[in-house]
Structures are given as structure tokens and as C-alpha cells.
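Late entry, evening session. Most of the bench is empty. Finally got around to the prediction I had been postponing all week. Sequence below, unchanged from the version circulated by S.P.
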Amino acid sequence: MDFNSLSKEQQVMVAMRKTLANIIKDTTPEPGMIHPLSKDTVEDIKACFALIAARERDLMEDMGVENKARPRFTDEPKAAQVVDFHKPK
């Protein structure tokens, strides 16, 4: 789905999720360093992510769209494998 084709509420959810994720990326310290955010703030951010995900799920269900997307690890094998074909000389 294109961002502009989403409802205003869906656009708000996407923007909030991306902004929170960027805050996490920008404030995550190097290993061994103290985190600049308090534990309470981190828990509040996790709660926000959970609420955003729940509302996005509700909106998708209301639209009759089933979300089959699932998170995966970067080193997890992909279901499909790309094969390069070379034209014979």
C-alpha cells in the first residue's frame, strides 16, 4: 500500500512507529555505555509500540485485509532463492 492511499489514522500510526523506531536507533548507546533513557521511558515506548501495532491490526481487519507479514531475522533463510541466468556465448 502507498502511504498516501492510507487513511489519516493509518498515516499517523506509520509516522508514530517510524519516529519511535528512529528515537530508539538514535539513543541506543554503544555496548557498555549507560542508556540515556530511563527504564520507565523504555517501557512506555514499548507500550506505545504495542498500542500502535494493535490499532494497525484493528484498522486492517476493518478493511478486510489479512496481514500475513511476519518479522524475520536477517540471517534466517529466505523462502525463495534468486538464481542468476547467464546467456551462453
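Two things to note before I forget:
The CA atoms of residues 49 and 57 lie 12 Å apart.
The chain has a mean pLDDT of 87.
Will write this up properly tomorrow.
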